[in-house]
């Protein structure tokens, strides 16, 4: 039987294999396996003779090549389940991964390849006191100084070293380390996105320009969507300009795919629901007397405070049987539209045709719109009519399908959205709103700059118009604002989006700590311990999700939501397998004889199960059941996706194997040392071929 590899995929090998299919002459055998003749490949991709490297438009920095190599290098690490820190471990579809997000992204490559609809991240902004990632691929100082010109090849100082170090905002290493941290993570994240997936990245002015360039390289400049400005408030103590904004960079995995699917992003106009509720209240009073409803609705608009969002939409003051509406231009956008006669209903004379032509392509479509009640005529034919736009559009407005004349407000109407709008690339919301919200949940100020879960909710709802059960990833989870936003959307809208949060167990920096401190002060530790709050950001994240989920369930929830507020905690750790598993040829015979097991002593069967799930590329949120068969503990993943028995006592017999084969699992895995004898081990594959021929059989 073949063994599972028990490590993440080697992306370099996969890329070489893909190149070999297209350019077989460029791939040949090398000392370490297949290699690419880059000179030949350059020639294959050029329409003229290639003599050597040429200047081209791109972003380079010391350490870039190593960061690419690191992104492609497989990891032997694994994810170990932690039931005691999870919520509803067996049934939840949400994941919380604790550990370095670079390792986590590598481990997720096969399991979630092309499955994530949306990624939102809020990475370190490289302000000088928040950059804690120190990846092994970052160049050491001597190598960096040589590449960037601080020292020559002999180590001679070319610039004033002390001056270089003090000017941290402009030296190459300051930006290079940050770029080397971000680049491989973005490369790996792109693999996880669906073809119609999108990524949102919060950033400030320190690295916005560099982030834009590496995103152009990783995702493709053609997949850039927007650079949104988030204004958070004015700083009156600023000496020159108040820089109170951040950015959100938005890229698609494949913008063409989104367009081909006809996906259009819109959001409900703020205040539209309030207008509708007031209309229903007035209709209950006045019935079908729309003149009285219009008069009272006008008074309601006038009495609204300026800050009320519905004040902006006071043009929706006319009323008919479909609710409040406003007039819209009926001419063809851009001019040169169709021209035909439209008779006025009272004068029976042709109405004046708009200079740009009619909005509707044919007389038949115009008559259909008139029949729907979506065209309002003026007092006579000397002026063109106008279109009606309702605060809650009827089907003909939104979908352009036929509708009965006697269409009335009812349950079917309730399923139609309110008037919507495309989002602008600028919005304002104070940052203190999110700070206060997190303080209210946790009972203390435990995080300096949490992201606003309501704004993230808006982004998710805005970019998943056709999805009810998307996977949403945040691999810089921070205080877990993204997780709470997903739970809130699901509760309000009846969606069942799932989250994957990844967060390093970084020491917490709460409000009592100096902004430049990297370790929690003793005063802060005592405060946190006194009120029972966690000391690391990952622990804070988990506790926030627990508290937010409990609070959401206490309120009114949408009937279509599955009420999943749980999460399965998985922790990045070294492989469950001893070194002998990966390189038995490097150990002599005596060492092998001394090895009792190829699994580390402290690792459990459930630990092994999750590494097997990683190896086979299954989603890590699949349901798991444990059954006893023939006195042996057997794990079943998603009923028949995997049957796993990691018994190491040598008690796996042929009757047991036959009973397991009768369950017809798609995959089955055994511990290599669990068989009664070599005869049983040899016969396992034959038993499955006879009783369950489609089952894939492996050992570890």
Automatic annotation (TrEMBL):
The keyword S-adenosyl-L-methionine applies. Residues 116-492 form the DNA methylase N-4/N-6 domain. Keywords: Methyltransferase, S-adenosyl-L-methionine, Transferase. Pfam families: N6_N4_Mtase. InterPro entries: DNA_methylase_N4/N6, DNA_methylase_N6_adenine_CS, N4/N6-MTase_EcoPI_Mod-like, SAM-dependent_MTases_sf. Belongs to the N(4)/N(6)-methyltransferase family. This is Site-specific DNA-methyltransferase. It comes from Dethiosulfovibrio marinus.
């Amino acid at each position: 039987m073949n063994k599972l590899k028990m490590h993440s995929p080697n992306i370099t090998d996969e890329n070489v294999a893909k190149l070999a299919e297209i350019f077989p002459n460029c791939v040949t055998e090398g000392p370490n396996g297949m290699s690419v003749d880059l000179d030949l490949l350059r020639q294959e991709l050029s329409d003229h003779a290639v003599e050597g490297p040429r200047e081209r438009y791109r972003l380079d920095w010391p350490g870039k090549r190593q960061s690419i190599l690191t992104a492609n290098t497989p990891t032997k690490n694994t994810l170990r389940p932690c039931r005691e820190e999870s919520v509803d471990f067996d049934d939840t579809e949400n994941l919380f991964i604790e550990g370095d997000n670079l390792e986590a992204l590598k481990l997720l490559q096969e399991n979630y390849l092309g499955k994530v609809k949306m990624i939102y991240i809020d990475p370190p902004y490289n302000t000088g006191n928040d950059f804690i990632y120190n990846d092994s691929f970052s160049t050491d100082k001597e190598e960096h100084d040589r590449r960037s010109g601080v020292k020559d090849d002999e180590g001679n100082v070319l610039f004033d070293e002390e001056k270089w170090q003090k000017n941290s905002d402009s030296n190459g290493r300051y930006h290079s380390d940050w770029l080397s941290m971000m680049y491989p993570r973005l490369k790996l994240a792109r693999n996880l996105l669906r073809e119609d997936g999108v990524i949102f990245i919060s950033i400030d002015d320190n690295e916005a320009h560099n982030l834009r360039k590496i995103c152009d390289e990783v995702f493709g400049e053609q997949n850039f969507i927007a650079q949104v400005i988030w204004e958070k408030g004015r700083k009156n103590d600023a000496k020159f300009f108040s820089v109170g904004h951040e950015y959100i960079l938005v890229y698609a995995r494949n913008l063409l795919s989104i367009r081909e699917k006809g996906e259009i992003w819109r959001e409900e106009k703020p205040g539209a629901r309030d207008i509708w509720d007031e209309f229903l209240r007035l209709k209950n009073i006045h019935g079908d007397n729309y003149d009285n409803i219009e008069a009272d609705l006008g008074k309601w608009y006038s009495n609204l405070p300026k800050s009320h969002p519905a004040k902006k939409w006071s043009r929706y003051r006319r009323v008919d049987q479909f609710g409040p509406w406003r007039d819209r231009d009926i001419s063809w956008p851009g001019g040169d539209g169709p021209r035909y006669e439209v008779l006025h209903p009272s004068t029976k004379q042709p109405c004046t045709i708009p200079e740009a032509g009619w909005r509707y392509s044919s007389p038949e479509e115009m008559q259909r719109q008139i029949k729907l009640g979506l065209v309002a005529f003026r007092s006579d034919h000397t002026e063109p009519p106008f279109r009606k736009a309702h605060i809650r559009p009827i089907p003909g407005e939104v979908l352009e399908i036929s509708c009965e004349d006697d269409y009335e407000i009812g349950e079917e109407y309730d399923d139609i959205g309110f008037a919507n709008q495309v989002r602008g690339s600028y919005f304002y919301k104070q940052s203190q709103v999110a700070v206060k919200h997190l303080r209210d949940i946790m009972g203390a100020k435990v995080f300096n700059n949490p992201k606003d879960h309501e704004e993230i909710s808006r982004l998710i709802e805005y970019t998943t118009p056709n999805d009810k059960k998307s996977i949403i990833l945040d691999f810089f989870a921070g205080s877990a604002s993204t997780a709470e936003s997903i739970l809130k959307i699901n509760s309000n809208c009846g969606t069942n989006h799932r989250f994957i949060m990844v967060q390093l167990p970084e020491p917490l920096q709460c409000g009592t700590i100096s902004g430049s401190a990297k370790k929690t002060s003793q005063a802060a530790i005592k405060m946190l311990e006194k009120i029972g709050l966690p000391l690391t950001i990952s622990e804070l994240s988990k506790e926030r999700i627990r508290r937010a989920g409990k609070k959401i369930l206490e309120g009114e929830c949408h009937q279509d939501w599955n009420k999943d507020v749980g999460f399965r905690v998985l922790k990045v750790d070294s492989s469950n397998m001893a070194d002998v598993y990966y390189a038995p040829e490097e150990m002599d015979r005596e060492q092998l004889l001394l090895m009792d097991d190829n699994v580390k002593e402290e690792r459990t069967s459930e630990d092994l199960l999750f590494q097997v799930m990683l190896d086979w590329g299954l989603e890590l949120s699949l349901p798991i059941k444990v059954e006893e068969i023939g006195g042996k503990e057997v794990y079943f993943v998603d009923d028949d996706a995997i049957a796993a028995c990691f018994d190491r006592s040598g008690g796996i017999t042929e009757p047991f194997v036959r009973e397991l084969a009768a369950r017809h699992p798609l995959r089955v895995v055994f511990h290599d040392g669990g068989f009664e004898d070599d005869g049983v081990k040899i016969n396992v594959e034959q038993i499955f071929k006879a009783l369950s021929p489609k089952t894939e059989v492996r050992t570890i």
